[in-house]
Amino acid sequence: MTAPTIAHDPALDALWMPFTANKAFKAKPRLLVSAKDMHYQSDDGRQILDGAAGLWCVNAGHCRAPIVDAIARSAATLDFAPGFQMAHPASFQLADKLKGILPTGIDHVFFTNSGSEAVDSALKIALAYHQSRGEPQRTRFVGRLRGYHGVGFGGISVGGIETNKKAFASQLLPSVDHLPHTHDLEHNAFSKGQPAWGAHLADALEAIVAERGAGTIAAVIVEPMAGSTGVLIPPKGYLEKLRALCTKHGILLIFDEVITGFGRLGSPFAAQFFGVTPDIITLAKGVTNATVPMGAACVTGTIYDTVVNATEKGIEFFHGYTYSGHPLAAAAGLATLDLYANEGIFERAAAMAPVWEAAVHSLRDAPHVIDVRNLGLVAGIELEARVGAPGSRAYDVFVDCFFHQNALIRVTGDILALSPPLIVSEDQIGELMAKVRKALEKVA
Ligand SMILES: Cc1ncc(COP(=O)(O)O)c(C=O)c1O
To answer: Measured between alpha carbons, how far is 260 from 234 in angstroms, rounded to an integer?
Structure first.
């Protein structure tokens, strides 16, 4: 069946947009043409307050001069260097700099170009690790319902967002189980920070172990704070429990920190914020302040040594990307990490978190709001779904925010997600909440 074509500018025809309602977008496009610090500029000249850090990624604000200059210098000096059997200095320097802010013990970095590739790399590393240490039967993965781990076949298999899987269900990875998610409004609605209820949900891993056998499971992968599914904050004690169970059963724990990395919660990584150290961290987005695509799977010395020492001669791990550690991305990453340190961006986010918490919870009495949750500089505002049209109310709020309130926010289903650049001021936090409230008051 063919849906009716909606009239639109033919110049928009050729592009097939990702994760977008293409027909609706092309009928009424939302175009951004430039950006600086906390604002985008739309094609009709409006200043749009960025309440989403682009897509959870522009942590230091837009078009920051030190990063722009570093990219320009790199482009003019070393445009590309092959990363297979060859290298360039900046990729080593960036790996070493990342080691400096990663949790102690996570000290080797495998570069990718995106979060999705970081996740699939991490899953492959987990398999290679167990194979190298003589437990090749550990091949199963455990993800979590509502988890988002990008769009590779590995990522959607361990992920738990049904809409992202249903068209591909016939070809997912064959051996994956899922933990329950931790979202429960009956117990946790309007929690400030980590909810008190829900640590026991990690015990579901024991049931999976009992059914499958610990010796068949390679890794558990979770977002320490689930972002894309609509901001699910881990209950107090939950991640600690997951860590203890993984250790007990010899299972690797992977934290997907593509969103939580680089100060979103006020520390370099969520692992440090929660005081729980996984075996592998995946990162992307904020590593270059989103200027040049880059991701990484970061592992312990034990994992690196085990895989690398299992091969006497020649290539130890048959995996990599043409652009792994690309010179422009590495230059952007080095400049970004310097900027984060020089401006104390992570500390700033931590200091602003209580202001943010008070501001987002002030929306509690706005129309249709059934939950407000927050951590660091992230908030999820859940709306009551319209009968028979789930997701439509939040989408309308998003559209109203863009066209009429001059604010960029994100939506997933009926949840508004807010995650501004970490340079956001107290005034701008107030301004963002006023804009969101206005949109909520307008949308039926
Ligand atoms: C936790 C997590 N993992 C992986 C990804 C995928 O990253 P990318 O879109 O760069 O492939 C995302 C993207 O939002 C994410 O939030």
So the answer is: 12
Is the beta carbon of 286 within 6 A of some atom in ligand 1? no
The residue whose CA has the least distance to atom 14 of ligand 1 is 228
For residue 407, what is the DSSP state? E
* CB-CB contact of 221 with 246 (8 Å): no
Q: What is the mean pLDDT of each run of 10 residues along the chain (444 residues)?
A: 71 96 96 98 98 98 98 98 98 98 98 98 98 98 98 98 96 97 97 98 98 98 98 98 98 99 98 98 98 98 98 97 98 99 98 98 98 98 97 98 98 98 98 98 94
Q: Cβ(287)–Cβ(295) under 8 Å?
A: yes
Dig out the tokens for 426 from the structure.
Answer: 């107290």
The atom of ligand 1 lying closest to the CA of 259 is 16
Kindly state if the Cβ of 148 falls inside 6 Å of ligand 1. yes
Residue nearest to atom 13 of ligand 1 (CA): 150
The structure tokens listed for 378 are 């992230």
CA 230–ligand 1 middle distance (angstroms): 13
CA pair distance 383, 105, nearest whole angstrom: 41
Token readout for 411 is 């939506």
Q: Cα–Cα distance between 324 and 165 in angstroms, integer?
A: 27
H/E stretch holding 117: helix 115-132
CB atoms < 10 A from the CB of 188, how many? Answer: 19
Structure tokens at 142: 């455990």
228 lines ligand 1 (CB under 6 A): yes
Instruction: Assess whether the C-beta atom of 257 lies below 6 angstroms from ligand 1.
Output: no
Beta carbon of 150 within 6 Å of any ligand 1 atom? yes
Q: What is the pLDDT of residue 5?
A: 64
∠ CA 226-436-148, rounded to 5°: 15
| Multiple choice CATH, 31-60+344-442, 3.40.50.80, 2.60.40.10, 3.90.1150.10, 3.40.120.10 | 3.90.1150.10
Instruction: State the distance from the centre of ligand 1 to the C-alpha of 152, rounded, in angstroms.
Output: 10
Q: Measure 166 CA to ligand 1 centroid, in angstroms.
A: 18
Pocket flag, ligand 1, residue 259 (CB < 6 Å): yes
Q: Please give the model's pTM, rounded to 2 decimal places.
A: 0.98
Cβ contacts of 203 within 8 Å, gap of 6 or more: 241, 245
* Residue 431 Cβ < 6 Å to ligand 1: no
Does the beta carbon of 378 lie inside 6 Å of ligand 1?
no
CATH of 67-342, one of 3.30.1070.10, 3.40.1360.10, 3.30.460.80, 3.40.640.10: 3.40.640.10
